[in-house]
Structures are given as structure tokens and as C-alpha cells.
Amino acid sequence: MHDRLVALFQESDAVFRVVEHPAEGRTEVISQIRGNSLPQAAKAMVLMVKQGKKSRRYYLCVVPGDCRVDMEAVKALGGGTHAMFAPQDVAEQLSGCVMGAVPPVSFNPELSLVVDPKLLEHEEIVFNAGRLDRSIFIQRDSYVKAVSPTLAPVSAQ
């Protein structure tokens, strides 16, 4: 996943840098290690929206590191009856990463990328890059150009 992210950003002529650090997946802790502000950290979580009894859609919701996901907003976005975190095995299969290392990028057509606009208030965003021991700092406009996310207010304080 890490190599795939770097290749995507290189192909997009993105302005970014990779930083190595001790392995850590908790947003608050890794932000202190990396020296970035918590609001510029991209927290990416895999959510499942149930649409009736048998239908489900999956979303990779990305919010600023000082926010949590607003489940009601995600439920409304997905037109569902219930929203919840996806089971860990499903989340790891869809994202291709262990929890804590999930980047704000989806290479899986079954995992829709949704980014809260609050994250994009920062010139540079930062996230674990498919590994717990590497992060990517990327210029906001480069990120948006490379991944073309759906923008929707899905965060709460």
C-alpha cells in the first residue's frame, strides 16, 4: 500500500514528503511524534452503512484528527438505515491496511472515499501511509487532485 500511495502521488506530480517514525497508529500520539497539529492529521475510518436488511455500502470517511465521525451524517450520505464502523476484518480487506495505517485514499471500488471539508482548511495534511512507521505530508491541493474525493461534512467535535 505504501508503495502504491507514493506511486500515485508521484504520477500526479503531487508536492509531498515521506517521513519515517516509530510505529504508531493512534492519531493523537503519532501527531505528537511527527510534530503536526492534530487538525491537519487525516483520520481515515472504514464505515458500513446498512441499506435495509441485506444491502450494505462501505465508506472511507476522513476527518480531521481532532474530530470524530458523525454517524448520522454518514447514514444520511449513504441513504441508509444505520451506520457503524465496519468489522475490522472487512475494513482491513477493503482498505488493504491494518487499522491505524489506513491512508485517506481508496483503491477499492467498493470503498467510497468521503473527506470532510474541515480537513482541507489546512495547506498541508498528514497521515499514516499504509504502514504504521511511515507518514506522508502532502500539500492539500495535490491530495485533492490525486484522489478526487467526495467532499461532505461527516465530522463532529
Describe the fold and architecture.
The chain is of the alpha+beta class. It has one domain: Alpha-Beta Complex (YbaK protein). Helices cover 26% and strands 32% of the residues. The chain is built from five helices and ten strands; from the N terminus they run αβαβββαβαβββαββ. The strands form three sheets. A five-stranded mixed β-sheet has the order 5-2-3-6-9. Strands 1-8-7 form a three-stranded antiparallel β-sheet. The chain has a two-stranded antiparallel sheet with strand order 4-10. Strand 7 and strand 8 form a beta hairpin. The protein is globular, with a radius of gyration of 15 Å. The N and C termini lie far apart (30 Å). The mean pLDDT is 96.
What is the CATH architecture term? Alpha-Beta Complex
* Uncertain residue segments: none
Structural class: alpha+beta
Largest sheet: number of strands, sense, barrel closure = 5 strands, mixed
Radius of gyration, in angstroms, nearest whole number: 15 Å
Calculate the terminal CA-CA distance, rounded to whole Å.
Answer: 30 Å
CATH topology call = YbaK protein
Order of helices and strands: HEHEEEHEHEEEHEE
Percentage of residues assigned to helices: 25-40%
- Helix segment count? 5
Shape: globular
CATH superfamily: YbaK/aminoacyl-tRNA synthetase-associated domain
Write down how many β-strands occur, each being a DSSP E stretch of 2 or more residues.
10
